Automatic annotation (TrEMBL):
TM segment ranges: 23-43, 86-107, 147-168, 174-194, 235-254
Protein name: Succinate dehydrogenase [membrane anchor subunit] (Succinic dehydrogenase)
Superkingdom of source: Bacteria
Sorted UniProt keywords: Membrane, Transmembrane, Transmembrane helix
Species whose genome carries this gene: Tenggerimyces flavus
Length: 264
């Protein structure tokens, strides 16, 4: 027996929806935006080159931990030296921020609608005959979101370190700031805001508290995260765009297509 929007209990409406607004615009924009980022990031992850222009390291390749890292880019050593050099370092690193975003509550809603049409929009019947939610393979792995949140926090710390050392010049002398420094700085701020606005962060900070008055510090932290949480969707898009732009800027520098704008 059919279930979901095709169940016997559903009103007998032949049309897929009675909505008269342009409800399809949002999923189309989401589809185009996500597809563009996936194509670009896949190309850059497998490229295994042009990701370091001293002192800037692409966020796609940070931290670089294998012997495939170009000289000067492995600030944390090469604990993954046993990996073949033909394996791009980005393929190891991107597992964690990618897992965090794929399991993110906002992104799940966005790509469920844009790619799987489950459903395409509110009050629009989906084409699927059955609905099992996230209780079966592979969607059951969405429950790993909290663990990816912790990993994403560590990645954000590394990217913060990258911003600090971006105030050095090519000779690793302090007192430098270029356009690349500002781009990495804006990127890491957006990544932190997106990470801290996460629903899992909100629950970790103030979840399961029976009485807020007995935990004033956690209550203030929970209040701050809750305010950020209201902008989670915007921060998800802003940080996605910023990380792509940061990588592209460093790519242009590494290929000597442009030169870095120096402020001092």
């Amino acid at each position: 027996m059919a279930s979901g929007v095709f169940s016997p209990e559903r009103a007998k409406i032949d049309q897929r929806t009675l909505r008269r607004d342009r409800w399809w615009i949002s999923p189309v924009i989401t589809f185009i935006g996500f597809t563009a980022f996936v194509v670009y990031s896949t190309w850059r992850a497998f490229a295994n080159e042009f990701y370091y222009a001293s002192p800037y390291l692409s966020p796609f390749y940070s931290p670089c931990l294998s012997d495939a890292c170009v000289p000067g880019s492995a600030d944390f050593g090469t604990p993954l030296a046993f990996l073949p050099t033909w394996i791009s370092p980005a393929l190891i690193i991107l597992i964690f921020p990618l897992g965090f975003r794929l399991t993110c509550y906002y992104y799940r809603k966005a790509y469920y609608r844009a790619f799987w049409q489950s459903p395409t929009a509110c009050v629009v019947a989906e084409p699927h005959q059955k609905y099992s939610g996230e209780t079966r393979f592979p969607l059951i792995f969405q429950n790993l979101h909290r663990w990816f949140f912790y990993a994403a926090g560590l990645v954000a710390l590394v990217l913060t370190y990258d911003v600090v050392i971006a105030f050095r010049n090519e000779a690793h002398e302090w007192g430098h700031m270029g356009l690349g420094t500002l781009i990495l700085l804006v990127n890491v701020v957006l990544i932190w805001l997106y990470t801290l606005s996460c629903h899992s962060c909100r629950h970790a900070v103030g979840g399961r508290l029976r009485t807020f008055s007995k935990h004033p510090v956690r209550y203030k932290a929970w209040t701050a995260v809750s305010k950020l949480n209201g902008h989670h969707a915007k921060l998800a898009w802003a940080s996605l765009i910023s990380v792509g732009l940061a990588d592209f800027y460093i790519y242009l520098l590494a290929t000597e297509t442009i030169t870095d704008v120096r402020f001092f």
